[in-house]
Design goal:
The complex is a heterodimer of chains A (about 425) and B (about 180). Helix content of chain A is about 65%, strand content about 0%. Chain A has about 425 residues and is mainly α. Chain A is globular, with a radius of gyration of 24 Å. Classes of the chains: A mainly alpha (about 425), B alpha+beta (about 180).
C-alpha cells in the first residue's frame, strides 16, 4: 500500500522548493489524500478518526488544566475547586477533560470490539494490533494517574489500592511499592510523580498512534468482508470519501460528548470524589471509573491476592497473543457461523463483568464474577484456537468489489 | 598470518572491553535516576511517636499517625483477650499466637492497614462494622480480622502488621 506511486504535484514555486528539500506534503498527500482504502468500510471503521479526535481533546484540555493545577497534598483539591470556580471557563475545560476520558475509552472499546469481530488482528496486521494493545495499556495508566490528581477520597483510595497491587509481588513487592510512593504511604511525593507521568504519557500515546497509523498504512485497512483489496476496483481514495465519512462520524460522536459535558458532566463520576482525600478513612465502597470495572471485577473474583493481580494483568496482556490464538483462516465473524455466538457471549461477558465490578464481591455477585472471569479467559485460550480448527466458514466473495456490487444489483432488483 | 590473528584478537578484546565498560557506566548513571524515587530523607526522618495510654478505657480504641500510616491501639476487654487466646492457631490463614502479637495482653497495637490492598479496616469506633470475629472488617474487599488483628476470612494474605514499639512506662508507649 505504501509503495503506490505518488500522484502529488506541487502546485506552486514554494511547494516545489519544499518538496525537493522535505517532501512532507508528498507524504501527507500519499497517506491521507489518495491513500487507497477499501470501498466497503462501515461506520465502525470511523473510530480511528474519533479516537484521534479524543486524544487531541485530552492533550489540549490537559495542558490548560496543568497551568492551574497544584500537585501538592495540601493544595491539589483546592486547586481543582479553584479551576471549577475561579478560572475563566475552567469548569468547561475540566468537565471536557473528565468526560473526555470516558468518551476516549468508549471509543477505544468499540474500536477493539470492531477489531475482534472482523479479525483485524490476523495476519498481516499482528503488529498493528499489538501497537493498539500497547496504546490501551498506556491509556489505562494515564487515565488512572489523571483520576488520582483530583485528590478526592476516591482518587486517594484508588491510588492506595492500585499501588498496593505491587505488594503482591513476592520478596521485593514491599520495596517496589515504597519506591512508587516515595514514602511509607501514598502522599505528597506520590502525587507529584503522578502528575509528571500523567503529563508524559499522552505524548507516548501520540507516538504509539503514529506507529499504529504507519503500520496500518503498510498493510492497509481490513474491511467488513475480510478479503484483501486486490484491484483498484476494490478501493477508493481516502480523500474525499473517508475524510467526509470520518468527519461526519466525529461530529455525531461530538454530539454525545457535548451532551455529557453540558447536561450530565458528573454522571459518570462517583459522589465520594467530592470529598477531599483523607488517609484515615476509607470510603465504604471503593469503585473505579466505569471503564475499569470489568478488570476490577476480575481482580476481585479471585480470592487470592497474587493470583487476582495476575489475572487482572493477564486479562489485558492476553490480547497481545490473540493473533496466534485464533486459528481461523477467515477474518470476518460474519462468515463464521460457529464462532459468531461465542463472540457475542464474549461481549456479554465483558458487559456483565462491568456490572459486577460495581457490586460488592459477595454471594451471587462473587459467584457470577468468577463464572464470567472464567469465560473471559476460556474465550481466548480455548474457544478461539478450537473453533478455528473445527469450523466450516461460509463462502467468501472473491473480492470486495464483487461483494459490494452484488449487493447493489440485488438492491436494484428489489 | 599470525600477526593478523593477533590483531583480530586485540580488536575483539577492545570491542568487548569497550562494550562492557559502557554497559557498567550506563547502569551506574541510571541508578540515581531510579533511586531518587525511593523515600527521601524527610520521609525517613519521621521516626518515632510517643502515645499516652492512660485515657483509654477498656474496650476502647484510638488511631494515631505514624509515618503517614494509621496505628490502631486497642485496650482489649477480658472477653476479647480470651477469644484471641482460645483460637486454634493451626487453623488460621496466617498462623500466629496471640502472645507473639502483644507485649501486654491488654494492649493491642497494630498498623491499621489491610494487608490486602491497603484500605483502612473499620471497627475502631463503637457501632462500626467489626466483622464476624469482633476485630476489624475491611470494607474494600471484605477481609475479617479477629481481636488479635489476625486475618480470619477474606482475600487479605497476612495478619495486620504489628509496628515496632516499646512500653516507656506502664501507660506510655513509643512507636518506631
Amino acid at each position: 500500500m505504501s509503495d503506490h506511486s505518488s500522484s502529488y504535484e506541487p502546485s506552486n514555486g514554494f511547494t516545489r522548493w519544499l518538496d525537493e528539500r522535505l517532501p512532507i506534503m508528498r507524504l501527507m498527500h500519499g497517506q491521507f489524500i489518495d491513500f487507497p482504502t477499501p470501498r466497503n468500510l462501515n461506520y465502525l471503521w470511523t473510530f480511528g478518526a474519533i479516537l484521534t479526535f479524543c486524544l487531541m481533546v485530552q492533550i489540549i484540555t490537559g495542558i490548560i488544566l496543568a497551568m492551574h493545577y497544584v500537585p501538592h497534598g495540601m493544595h491539589a483539591w483546592s486547586s481543582v475547586e479553584h479551576i471549577m470556580r475561579d478560572v475563566n471557563w475552567g469548569d468547561l475545560i475540566r468537565y471536557t477533560h473528565a468526560v473526555g476520558a470516558s468518551m476516549f475509552f468508549l471509543a477505544a472499546y468499540i474500536h477493539m470490539f470492531r477489531g475482534l469481530y472482523y479479525g483485524s488482528y490476523k495476519s498481516p496486521r499482528e503488529i498493528l494490533w499489538i501497537l493498539g494493545v500497547m496504546i490501551i495499556l498506556c491509556m489505562i495508566m494515564t487515565a488512572f494517574m489523571g483520576y488520582s490528581l483530583v485528590w478526592g477520597q476516591m482518587s486517594f483510595w484508588a491510588v492506595t489500592v492500585i499501588t498496593n497491587l505491587f505488594t503482591a509481588i513476592p520478596v521485593v513487592g514491599e520495596s517496589i511499592t515504597q519506591w512508587i510512593w516515595g514514602g511509607y504511604s501514598v502522599g505528597d511525593p506520590t502525587l507529584n510523580r503522578l502528575l509528571s507521568l500523567h503529563y508524559l504519557f499522552p505524548f507516548i500515546i501520540a507516538a504509539l498512534v503514529g506507529l499504529h497509523i504507519w503500520a496500518l498504512h503498510v498493510v492497509g485497512s481490513n474491511n467488513p468482508v475480510g478479503v484483501e483489496a486486490k484491484t483498484p476496483k476494490d478501493s477508493v481514495s481516502f480523500f474525499p470519501f473517508y475524510v467526509i465519512k470520518d468527519g461526519f462520524a466525529v461530529i455525531v460522536f461530538a454530539l454525545l460528548f457535548a451532551w455529557f459535558v453540558f447536561y450530565a458532566p458528573n454522571y459518570l463520576g462517583h459522589s465520594d470524589n467530592f470529598n477531599e482525600a483523607n488517609p484515615l478513612q476509607t470510603p465504604p465502597h471503593i469503585v473505579p471509573e466505569w471503564y475499569f470495572l470489568p478488570f476490577y471485577a476480575i481482580l476481585r473474583a479471585i480470592p487470592d491476592k497474587l493470583l487476582g493481580v495476575i489475572a487482572m494483568v493477564a486479562a489485558i496482556c492476553v490480547l497481545f497473543v490473540i493473533p496466534w490464538l485464533d486459528t481461523s483462516k477467515v477474518r470476518s465473524t460474519s462468515y463464521r457461523p460457529l464462532y459468531k455466538p461465542f463472540f457475542w457471549l464474549f461481549v456479554i461477558t465483558c458487559l456483565a463483568l462491568g456490572y459486577l465490578g460495581a457490586k460488592a464481591p459477595e454471594g451471587y455477585y462473587l459467584l457470577a464474577s468468577q463464572l464470567f472471569t472464567a469465560y473471559y479467559f476460556i474465550h481466548f485460550l480455548v474457544v478461539m484456537p478450537l473453533i478455528g480448527m473445527i469450523e466450516t466458514p461460509k463462502q467468501l466473495p472473491d473480492s470486495i468489489a464483487e461483494d459490494v456490487l452484488e449487493d447493489t444489483s440485488e438492491a436494484e432488483k428489489a | 598470518m599470525s600477526s593478523d590473528n593477533n590483531d583480530e584478537n586485540r580488536r575483539d578484546f577492545l570491542m568487548v572491553a569497550a562494550g562492557s565498560f559502557t554497559a557498567v557506566g550506563g547502569a551506574c548513571a541510571l541508578w540515581p535516576l531510579i533511586d531518587q524515587m525511593n523515600p527521601d530523607a524527610s520521609a525517613k526522618a519521621l521516626a518515632t511517636v510517643e502515645v499516652d495510654l492512660s485515657p483509654i478505657k477498656d474496650g476502647q480504641a484510638i488511631t494515631i499517625m505514624w509515618r503517614g500510616k494509621p496505628v490502631f491501639i486497642r485496650k482489649r476487654t477480658a472477653d476479647e483477650i480470651k477469644e484471641a487466646k482460645d483460637v486454634d492457631v493451626a487453623d488460621l490463614p496466617d498462623p500466629q499466637d496471640d502472645g507473639d502479637r502483644v507485649k501486654n495482653d491488654e494492649w493491642l497495637v497494630l498498623i491499621g492497614i489491610c494487608t490486602h490492598l491497603g484500605c483502612i479496616p473499620s471497627g475502631q469506633k463503637t457501632g462500626d462494622n467489626s466483622g464476624e470475629y469482633g476485630g476489624w472488617f475491611c470494607p474494600c474487599h471484605g477481609s475479617h480480622y479477629d481481636t488479635s488483628g489476625r486475618i480470619r476470612k477474606g482475600p487479605a494474605p497476612r495478619n495486620l502488621e504489628v509496628p515496632p514499639y516499646a512500653f516507656v512506662t506502664d501507660t506510655k508507649i513509643k512507636i518506631g
